[in-house]
Amino acid sequence: MSKQLQFKLVLLGESAVGKSSLVLRFVKDQFDDYRESTIGAAFLTQTVALDDGTTVKFEIWDTAGQERYKSLAPMYYRNANCAVVVYDITQSASLEKARNWIRELQRQADPSIVIALCGNKSDLAARRQVTQEEAQKYAEEEGLMWAETSAKSGEGVSDIFTAIAKKLPTTAPPASRAGPGRAGTSAGRTGVDLNRQGAGASTEPCNC
What we know:
Elements: E1 4-13, H1 19-28, E2 41-49, E3 55-63, H2 73-77, E4 82-88, H3 92-108, E5 114-120, H4 132-142, E6 145-148, H5 157-167, H6 187-190, E7 192-193
Parallel strand pairs: 1-3, 1-4, 4-5, 5-6
Antiparallel strand pairs: 1-7, 2-3
C-alpha cells in the first residue's frame, strides 16, 4: 500500500516578494497580477506524489510579509516540518530580509526543519539585483536548499516543493496519533502517516 504523509510548511519573506503567488501557482496553477497583501496568514493544502509511491500532503501557512505581522510568525513556524523563505531576485534588500528569517528559524524553529531559500520572479531576470551565485553560495554555507522560481510563468514552482517533499522523512513516528494540542511531540516534526487509523482526524489546520 502506498504511504501517505502529512507535513506542515510555512512561507516566510518580505512583503511583495510573491509568497502568495507562489502558493497559488503550486496549489491551483493560477497567477493573478493584482493579488492583495496577505493579512495575518492564509492556509492552503496540496499533495505531491513521489516516485516511490509516497504521497506527501503539505499543510501550507502563507504568512504576511508586512512588519506589523512579524510578531505572529512564530505561531506559524512553530513545529513546522519545512519552510520556504522567499526573496525577490530584483530586490537585493529582500534577500537580506530572507537571511533574517533564516537566522530566526535556525534559532527558534525545530532543529530538524527543512529550509528552502527561494528566489522568486525569475521571469524578471533583466532587472536582477541578486545573482544566482550569491544566493546559492549563501544557501550552501547555511545548509539550505535553494532554487529560483517564477510564480508568473510557473517555472520551477512544482520542482521546489517536490524537492522539499523528497527531503522530508518518509517514516512516521509511533507518536503520530498525538492530537493538535501536543505540539512538542515528535509528530510535529516527522509528519503524520495518513494511513494510520484515526491519524487524519488528529491533525487540524489550527495546529500552529
